[in-house]
Amino acid sequence: MPPYFQRFHPDCTDMQKSYTPMLPEKAWEAISPALFESFYSHSLGDLHCPEERYTTEIARLKREVDRLTQVQQGSGEAALAAMATMAAAAAAAGGSRHDVQQAVVFTKSQEQELERVKRNAEALTLDMSRQKQHCETVRTQFELRQNDFLSPLSKDNVALFTTQTFLTYCVYPRCLLSPEDAMYCAHFVILLHSIETPGFQTMQYLDGLVDVVVGALYCITEDEAGNIGVMLAEMWKLISKWRYDEKVFTKEVVGKPGSYLTKENDKDDKNESEVESEAVSYANFIKLYNRWHASIGEAAIGCLKSSEYMHTRAALIVLNRIVLFALSCCSDCVNSSGAICLRSSLCRL
């Protein structure tokens, strides 16, 4: 039976062999089949539980349950206010005294609405619990397999080529597909960092990601720009948290595999280069952060000045996604934002 007809299993030998032709041979020197498989065999629901959205909606439903219950019982401020509103509406419509009295009676439709809201609140609470448990299970699976992602590769290959290969064959192609896939790419990287995946240099990845975004602005569609903006905004939440809270940076970054940044330095005496990996301190991270801001700002300004309509549209869409992070205390960011605002003709777009 062909591998693509077989039931998927991570440890299936035939399935693992089928990955090899999908990428160039050189790519497998930088990422492992385990990392490639894990990236493409999961979805956003496996990695992320939107607890805030769940909590907000559940709280809204519970407030509605309380309001309808008070109306049913005829007591409480919410009930009196609701009854007064319904009575006023009936009177304003020209209703008789009987119509006004009937307007404040707890009707059959309100009873059905109360039951529906109760069911929805209970269903959402149960669904959130299941989703959290599922995400924890997937995280545990990642923790058990993290040593298979990059550890089998040589140190030089991991340092030099993992970021480029991972972005080229995994993150960039998938993030363009849909907003959900773009969000998934961001949370996949966040997960790799949080479980301290050996060999995965988060700083190196972020540096490469900014370069990818800068280059992509000139050759993407409006939908693809929106997707890239979703991924960049989700990553920038984490980056901004590190940038403006040294304690968080120390807790979540310092001393972990993701804190390293690899540089390739040229030797003067020979036409060779040497690889140097060093941990990024908080002071150096601020410099990196400012440089990333400046790079994106310069690229956006170039797009906005371009005579090509799609360049301008792509830049506006991405900037709209990350507008909350566009202004900061650093002078480079302020200068970039000011230059962008000078393009008054953008109002027609």
UniProtKB/TrEMBL annotation:
Protein name (record): THO complex subunitTHOC2 C-terminal domain-containing protein
Coiled-coil features, chain-numbered ranges: 107-134
Pfam families: Tho2 (PF11262)
Organism of origin: Ditylum brightwellii
Biological process according to GO: mRNA export from nucleus; mRNA processing
Swiss-Prot/TrEMBL keywords: Coiled coil
Keyword set includes Coiled coil: yes
A Gene Ontology molecular function term of the record: mRNA binding
Cellular-component GO terms for this entry: THO complex part of transcription export complex
Domain annotation THO complex subunitTHOC2 C-terminal: ranges: 28-323
UniProt superkingdom: Eukaryota
